[in-house]
Write a structure and sequence with these properties.
single chain; alpha/beta; FAD/NAD(P)-binding domain; seven-stranded mixed beta sheet; 14 helices; globular
Length: 498
């Protein structure tokens, strides 16, 4: 039986970051990935010579001196990643079908205020209040500022404040309320639940600076993998963990689908907490804890269309386009199968092929997992003709909607491919294809909060279900996860000194 200091289940961003930290600290690390490709939401795929991202489309706070830059410096990524900065004066554009006006998000708080003040000249004070609150919240999180602290437990009053209610409190202008929440597909916002903390940290990061990963996000996974292997870490693909077996109140080994057993002193799970509990044997957890985790609601899933374009026909868009049919951006809860799709996010990936023309387009919109129930127990490439026709009809409806903003889109298409919540579930291991894992609830912040520390001393959670999702959120979560083994302030000092 193989034995390691640390076994990490899942090679998503959280798992790879933990693998990097702990292998750098001298621990004997083994990462186990069920798929043949590492990376989780960092995975890319290639069609028609176009590279498509599955989960990471743009990242924030990467200018020198900003927080993700410092983290990435520690992870030896700065200078190695191929990056493209989005338009400073319009990295995101919010568009409503009822007035054909584009509302732009600009980088830098002053610039953000100035740009939106042109669209809302009577709302400058509301915009100032909004930006002040984002700065206040980001300054309050120690790990956003690499401040040494005494506990890995994150407690903030902003988990209890509601994002929708805060935005409504600073302005009575309904359109501005919707514009300020216009990119909430980045966290699958629910107006009565999403904490202000989630909204603020996500938006603050992108307002500071926004970048695309050129030629796909898989480069991030490859660079981290190279470093882990250099640090004598082991990464195994096609190695699905089917059991975590406990002895004396701790996990003693994991068992793979092949029945191979692997021992470790610590086990870090980068898969959904509920899925982790499903493979946990010798039940030593209290039933109330299991029930709480299993009762947690997950964020909405998505349908995506991946378009390969005819060569040199569609200009590259150095911004992200958010479209809404109605004056309501909280469409994850107003979801209607009859009126679907009511919104979408459209972007053109950055490539080294051309600075002028795009070779592909990615479009995402919400989709309920329940729509796929009849194919729930099928596998990739084996779902049948009805499923293929279901996806085709959905894609054509989405293209009809896209034509409102881009009237000639169809003439530029060479071919297209689609993914559903089932695709996302099977390739990234997310519960029911959920975009961002567990849905946080401002009314019950502690119930929907998942700590890296579990009731089992040597089992630690990491990934998008811990603290925050997104690249920055998962990075902070990975530091907290590894802090359970090596100490938090020790890591903070290392990151600051990088």
């Amino acid at each position: 039986m193989n034995k390691y200091d640390v076994v990490i289940v899942g090679s998503g961003l959280g798992g790879l970051l933990c693998g990097y930290i702990l292998s750098k600290e001298g621990y004997n690390v083994c990462i186990l990935e069920k798929n043949k490709q590492i990376g989780g939401c960092l995975q890319t795929f290639k069609r028609d010579n176009c590279i498509f991202d599955t989960g990471i489309h743009y990242i924030g706070s990467l200018d020198e001196g900003q927080i993700l830059y410092q983290y990435f410096k520690y992870f030896d990524l700065i200078g190695k990643l191929k990056l493209k900065k989005l338009d400073k004066d319009a990295f995101d554009v919010i568009y409503f079908d009822d007035n054909k006006v584009e509302y732009a998000y600009s980088m830098g708080y002053d610039n953000f205020i100035e740009t939106l003040s042109k669209s809302f000249p009577n709302e400058r004070q509301a915009l100032i209040k909004y930006c002040d609150k984002l700065k206040e919240i980001s300054n309050s999180l120690a790990l956003y500022n690499l401040k040494e602290i005494t506990s890995t437990f994150i407690e903030t009053t902003y988990f209890k404040e509601n994002a929708f209610e805060f935005i409504k409190s600073i302005t009575s202008d309904i359109r501005l309320q919707n514009v300020l929440a216009g990119s909430n597909v980045l966290y699958a916002g629910v107006p009565e639940k999403t904490p202000l903390f989630i909204h603020a940290i996500v938006n603050a990061s992108f307002i500071e600076s926004s970048y695309r990963l050129v030629d796909g996000s898989q480069q991030l996974a490859k660079l981290l993998t190279d470093s882990i292997v250099k640090n004598n870490g082991i990464i195994r693909t096609n190695s699905k963990v089917t059991r975590l077996v406990c002895n004396n109140n701790e996990i003693s080994f994991c068992e793979l689908e092949s029945t191979e057993r692997i021992e470790a002193k610590y086990f870090i799970s980068d898969i959904h907490p509920e899925l982790t509990l499903d493979i946990l044997e010798n039940d030593i957890l209290r039933k109330v804890y299991r029930n709480r985790v299993k009762s947690l609601e997950n964020t909405m899933a998505s349908f995506a269309i991946y378009i390969s374009l005819k060569e040199n026909t569609f200009k590259y868009l150095n911004r992200n386009h958010y479209f809404f049919s109605k004056n309501n951006v909280w469409t994850s809860v107003t979801y209607s199968i009859e009126e679907w799709p009511e919104s979408y996010l459209l972007l053109t990936p950055a490539t080294t092929k051309s600075e002028i023309y795009a070779d592909s387009i990615i479009v995402m919109t919400y989709m309920k997992y329940e729509e796929l129930k009849q194919w729930e127990h099928t596998t990739v490439e084996n779902r049948g003709e009805e499923y293929i026709e279901f996806k085709r009809k959905k894609a054509e409806k989405l293209l009809d909607k896209i034509e409102i903003q881009f009237p000639d889109i169809r003439k530029h298409i060479k071919s297209y491919y689609t993914s559903t919540p089932l695709t996302y579930r099977d390739y990234t291991g997310t519960k029911n294809g959920s975009l961002y894992g567990i849905l946080r609830d401002s009314d019950e912040p502690m119930k929907s909060f998942v700590s890296p520390r579990t009731k089992i001393p040597n089992l630690i959670f990491t990934g998008q279900n811990v603290i925050l999702h997104g690249v920055l959120g998962v990075t902070i979560g990975a530091v907290l996860s590894c802090a359970e083994i090596v100490g938090l302030n020790h890591l903070i000092r290392k990151i600051k000194q990088a």
